[in-house]
């Protein structure tokens, strides 16, 4: 066996070893890919119903949001109406009430002055206590 034959035998043995290692690596890769496929199938089976439920929840949230917007609009209208009514009530009752209070105050002062001008003998017992 000469050097060329020896080199051919060595290259053949190294090639067979490399082929065996690559075969083992490919088989391991295939095993891993099968496991990954099982995991992905399981993940798919679990996520599809969740996404469906999520869509239903989002649709319901949209409906509820529209309802809340309607309620807020109604509350704003009621607030505006109550505010207008309270302003109207204030404008309607404020001047007569102020005039009545002023009149009562004036009558009270006039009554005091009238009592102060009357002689002490004509005053009643309750007037003397004051």
Describe the structure.
By secondary structure, the chain is an all-alpha fold. It has a domain at 75-109. Helix content is 92%, strand content 0%. It is built from two helices and no strands. The protein has helices spanning 3-117, 125-129.
Could you name the key traits of this structure?
92% helix, 130 residues, mainly alpha
Shape descriptor: rod-shaped
Main beta-sheet annotation: none
User: Into which percentage range does the β-strand content fall?
Assistant: under 5%
User: Over the alpha carbons, how many angstroms does the gyration radius reach?
Assistant: 51 Å
* Overall pLDDT metric: 90
Helix/strand order, N-terminal first: HH
Helical amount among residues, as a percent range? Answer: over 70%
Number of helices: 2
Structural class: mainly alpha
> What are the low-pLDDT stretches, counting only 5+ consecutive residues below 50?
none
- Terminal CA distance: 148 Å
- The total count of strands amounts to 0
């Amino acid at each position: 066996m000469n050097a060329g034959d020896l080199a051919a035998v060595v290259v053949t043995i190294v090639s067979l070893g490399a082929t065996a290692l690559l075969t083992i690596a490919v088989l391991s890769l295939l095993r891993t890919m099968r496991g990954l496929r099982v995991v992905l199938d399981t993940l798919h089976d679990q996520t599809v119903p969740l996404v469906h439920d999520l869509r239903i929840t989002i649709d319901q949230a949209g409906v509820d949001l529209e309802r809340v917007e309607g309620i807020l609009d109604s509350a704003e209208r009621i607030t505006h109406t109550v505010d207008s009514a309270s302003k109207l009530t204030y404008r309607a009752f404020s001047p007569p009430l102020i005039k009545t209070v002023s009149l009562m105050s004036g009558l009270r002062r006039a009554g005091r002055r009238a009592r102060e001008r009357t002689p002490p003998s004509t005053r009643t017992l309750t007037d003397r206590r004051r």
